[in-house]
Amino acid sequence: MTPYLPVMDWALFAIFLAACGAAATTGAMFMPGAWYRELSKPNWTPPDWVFPITWTVLYLSSAFAAARVAPLEGAAYAMAFWAMQIAFNTLWTPVFFGLHRIRAAFVVMLGLWISVAGTMIAFFQLDLLAGALFVPYLIWVSIAGALNASVWMRNPDEAAKTPV
After folding, report:
1. Which has fewest Cβ within 10 Å: 126, 131, 136, 145?
2. CA separation, residue 100 to residues 4, 93, 105, 119, 120 (Å)
3. pLDDT averaged per 10 residues, the chain (length 164)
4. What is the rounded average pLDDT for all residues in the chain?
């Protein structure tokens, strides 16, 4: 674990932030819309305005953490987990909101949860702050996974449909 604060490589941060921006773009391309509004959701569903604020903070934290860890010796697995989580993150929105595949989105969410947890653990082994920056991400993905599962269970007819 790094016992000091490394000098931030801002170009590296910008590269990771660009990857996060690409993932975030799917949220703009595949908006929840009327289909999602009509689904039965639990009463603990966060209001719509919470999602963009939360994801902005999480993406900034994720890019910052990755920029801290990437140059460190022994960071190969940590960065592989980071790449895996951003790929699953990018995939979930089009599967859920674009294709309306609630069950498939839950499978993607499981991959996202595992990869975020793996990233967090790998980051903690290399840099305490980077690992800590992934704790809120894992909490949020846990909430999102529970919400996805709840929507799946509360809408069995919709979940069974094959999209056009």
Report:
1. 136
2. 46, 9, 8, 28, 29
3. 66 95 92 91 94 96 98 97 98 96 96 98 98 98 97 87 59
4. 93
